[in-house]
Amino acid sequence: KELLVEISGTTVTVTCPSLEPPVSWRVNDEQKSNETKLVLQDPENFPLNITCSSKERRAEMYLNAKVCANCEELDALAVAGIITADLLITFGVLILVYYFSKDRKGRASTSAGSRPRGQKMQRPPPVPNPDYEPIRKGQREVYAGLESRGF
């Protein structure tokens, strides 16, 4: 049978399988205790080679674990609940953003020059930019200073 390991905070408890007392424990070739359970407080020298033996049986284990004082134990139901709540909140925010931005998508900006449009009114052509107007007859003096350079 296998050894049973329980880790809680900084305490590691190893239970020997059904062996008849007396039970002797060896941790990294060092004699520890003679009880059915081995309790290690604040173990710092992982990995450990743990051996549990009685008169006729012996169980060995290689243990490499991390323990910490500030760790919290969560069961699977609590983790599933946290993930589900996070997803619901995220989808709720996405839906709110979608509905509030959907109304503004087709609206014109509220500037001074905006006016309500009628049904399929035609827009006038855009006003040409005076900086880029074509040269007309009689207006050559405006552009007289811009002579072509010989390169």
TrEMBL record:
What's a single GO MF annotation on this record? transmembrane signaling receptor activity
Which sequence ranges are marked TM in the entry?
76-100
- Keywords in alphabetical order, please: Cell membrane, Immunity, Immunoglobulin domain, Membrane, Receptor, Signal, Transmembrane, Transmembrane helix
Q: Taxonomic classification, please?
A: Eukaryota, Metazoa, Chordata, Craniata, Vertebrata
Q: List the GO cellular component terms.
A: alpha-beta T cell receptor complex; external side of plasma membrane
Protein species of origin: Aramus guarauna
Q: What is this protein called?
A: T-cell surface glycoprotein CD3 epsilon chain
- Principal cellular location given in the protein's record: membrane
- InterPro entries in alphabetical order: CD3_esu/gsu/dsu (IPR015484), Ig-like_fold (IPR013783), Phos_immunorcpt_sig_ITAM (IPR003110)
Q: Which Pfam families match?
A: Ig_5
User: Where does this one sit in the cell?
Assistant: Cell membrane
Q: Does the keyword Signal apply?
A: yes
Question: Coiled coil: present as a keyword of the record?
Answer: no
Q: Where is this region: Disordered?
A: 104-138
Please cite one Gene Ontology biological process associated with this protein.
cell surface receptor signaling pathway
